[in-house]
Structures are given as C-alpha cells and as structure tokens.
Amino acid sequence: MSAPVAANASLTPLPGHLYVVATPIGNMADLTERALALLGSVDLVACEDTRTTGSMLTRLGLRRELVAYHDHNETEAAERLADELAAGKSIAVVSDAGTPALSDPGFRIVRACRRRALPVVPVPGPCAITTALCAAGLPTNGFFFAGFLPPKSAARINFLTKYQDFDYTLALYESCHRIDKFAREIVDTLGPDRVVCIAKELTKLHETFWVGTASEVNDRLAQASRKGEFVVLIAPASFTL
Ligand code: SAM
C-alpha cells in the first residue's frame, strides 16, 4: 500500500511549482504514472531538445507548450522560467533521457527556484547510473558518481590515479567514441585485476553487462560493437567477485 500523498506529490500540477521529471533511458514503459500525468498537464515543459521531447510527448498522445532549456541557454533560461513560476505557471523540466540535472541540464533552474523559495518537486524515475549500479554486482554501500571524465587521456588517467585507493565504487558515464580507450586506460592505470562493470544500452533491446576484471572486460568490449550508451563502474581495489 502506498503512503498518503502530499498535495505537491499528487498527479495534478500546482501553480508556481517546478517538477523535475525523469524520463525513460530507453524503455518507454519505464515512464512513471506520475511523470505521465504531470507531463500532460503542466503549463510548460522545459526541455533539452524540443524535437526529442516533442516526439516523446506525441508518442504518449500528449501536447504541451515546449520551451528550450539546454547547456547553451541554461543560465538565462533558468531565470526566465523562474519568473514564469513566480507568476504562477507550473513547469516540468526534462532532459532528453533520464533524470535532469545529472550530467544533464537542470541544476540551474533548480538553484534559481531554491534561491527564490519557489517549490521544487522531484518526480523520480529512470537514471542510467542507478540502473547500472543496482544490477552490476559491484559494491553499492557507497559510490562516487563523477559524471563524464574530460576527453583528454591525461585528465582521465589523473582521475584514476587520484581515486585508485578510493573505498567505494566509482561510477561514470562514457561516450561510445571513447569507451574502448577508457577501458584500456583502466587496465593500464589500475591494473588488469581491478573489478569493473561496463553496462551498455540499459533497458534497451541490446542491454549488456560486462562484469569481470578490467582485462577481461576490455577483451569482451574489443570483440563487441561499441555503438550505444555506456556506464562504467569501477570497484574498490579490495573487491573480488
Ligand atoms: N541524466 C541522464 C540519466 O539520468 O541517466 C544521463 C545523461 S548523460 C548526458 C548521457 C549518458 O548517460 C550517456 O552518454 C551514457 O553514458 C549514460 N546513459 C544514458 N542512457 C543510457 C543507457 N540506456 N545505457 C547506458 N548508459 C546510458
């Protein structure tokens, strides 16, 4: 049985409230009932890419006013949207996929609202990092989510060196263009026996978890297609499978 629901957590948007809405990372069935209800009834949807969100809403049979809110206009758009909230509009912020504000636009509008004491309501749901962690079998008692590492090898190797003795799992996003390079950097910097997981295409048709020593996972990755989206998890040095 679910707990009683506060007014700001109901399926109906309240005036002046910002809803931070998670959307699927691949499988549309992962959209929550609350996300669906709110996306269909807020005054405005602020989105990273109006075409991506527009086509998601169309597939869901919804039509809403969309406003661009992305890396290039985030600071200015956050203040403008906060003005709209202060004037009484309800707004949902979404990214292309997953949870806004995690390696995605979202932080600035949330901060603008908090600074003005405007209500912010999380609408939780899919997130690539927690999806990978919960099924990888690497330690979950604590983890450090570091987002995307910088593209340059030297910066990634610095990061790995700095955290080589970290007590908790390291959790990272990596692009398909650098995943093979990063897998080799892990072997070279942390050693072939470090336990890692590379999770690919989570919740999608070709969902794959490679879990093993860094050298095993590197070999398996080398034999597979590197197309798709990847999460990288690195266990603490003391962990064995
Ligand atoms: N905010 C999003 C979230 O909550 O999942 C993450 C956005 S970030 C721009 C996109 C990165 O997340 C991808 O490059 C990849 O590293 C990871 N990612 C997103 N969807 C994924 C999926 N279905 N499978 C594996 N990794 C995924």
Structure description:
The protein is an alpha/beta fold. It folds into 2 domains: 7-123, Tetrapyrrole methylase, N-terminal domain (Cobalt-precorrin-4 Transmethylase, domain 1, 3-Layer(aba) Sandwich), CATH 3.40.1010.10; 128-234, Methyltransferase, Cobalt-precorrin-4 Transmethylase, Domain 2, CATH 3.30.950.10. It contains 8 helices and 10 strands. Strands 3-2-4-1-5 form a 5-stranded parallel beta sheet, sandwiched between helices. A 5-stranded mixed beta sheet has the order 6-7-10-8-9, with helices on both faces. Helix 7 runs antiparallel to helix 8. It is elongated. It starts with 17 loop residues before the first strand and ends in a 7-residue tail after the last strand. The mean pLDDT is 96. Bound molecules: S-adenosylmethionine (SAM). S-adenosylmethionine (SAM) binds at residues 25-26, 95, 97-99, 102-104, 127-128, 173-175, 199, 201-204, 229-231. It is found in: Cytoplasm. Keywords: Cytoplasm, Methyltransferase, rRNA processing, S-adenosyl-L-methionine, Transferase. Belongs to the methyltransferase superfamily. RsmI family.
